[in-house]
Amino acid sequence: xxxxxxxxxxxxxxxxxxATCAALRAGIAAFxxxxxxxxxxxxxxGARVDAIASSRRGRExxxxxxxxxxxxxxxxxxxxxxxxxxxxxxxxxxxxxxxAPLNGMFADLRFPDGSAVNERRTAHIxxxxxxxxxxxxxxxxxLDEGAPACIVLAIDSLIxxxxxxxxxxxxxxxxxxxxxxxxxxxxxxMAVVSRRPMTPHxxxxxxxxxxxxxxxxxxxxPFRANGLAGALKTALAEARTEMYEVAFRFSDVxxxxxxxxxxxxxQMRNMRQSRPEQPVWHAxxxxxxxxxAAGLIQLAWAEQAFSRNYAPGALAALHGSSMAxxxxxxxxxxx
Length: 335
Prior knowledge:
- Helix content is 29%, strand content 24%.
- It is built from 9 helices and 12 strands.
- Strand 2 and strand 3 form a beta hairpin.
- The longest helix is centred in the middle third of the chain and has 14 residues.
- The protein is globular.
- The relative contact order is 0.20.
- The mean pLDDT is 94.
């Protein structure tokens, strides 16, 4: 079993995991008109982190997100963790997605113990929304090889002219002429993965599954949600549970009907027995599509829900989908 603890989270609705998840639970949204326009010259709506000036763009915006997530680690947790012994896994957008270059993003940034972040990157998973799940899989291997714990750091921002133009061009951005699209967001999240709890609040990862989908949002292939359904089936099998035993679900769905359909089909293909209800919680309802950070945000919300006793049951399912490039992932977690 793997234990995950969220140690820092910066989002458009909060600068800690507790604040962000409280806002998500209350349905507090942070959407506003951005300093970017769609192809019809109408302002694009999105969710941005207020602490980052709108004039900061590209790599400097990502770098500021990285600085904020390091600065908002609670002092007690920062002092208790063995930072220098923990390998770092960085999660970012897909390589195929246009956006800011990542090189130099961690220059001069340091962990709470003073060790340099730039010298500690052990692995880089450029997979978008499924990246955090792939990072958990990688962390398992590192723990088996003797690491006491691993740091997973996910940073992404769709508030970038290159990313927005690419989404708009592929009719995936919610604009004045495209209603079936996503709302861009940004966030940074850091989690510690270990075999035993290292912080007061954590979640246990019971099962993990990765998959690939050929019928993507920008392809013409017949769609049966094979990738996500397969990833969910693997996660359920590893957790030794059934879909009907899952009390609630988290999703990175950010507005596209394709993604909603996939979520439903994946559930149906794994449901062997009916249950009264199985609610789905969408962080994107409040903070938009946060890209590679979406997976860790789901884990952070699950952690908060279990620790604060508002989870509707003992088991939760998490989902990750790279709509354009086919990566799929799922996880089963518990308190």
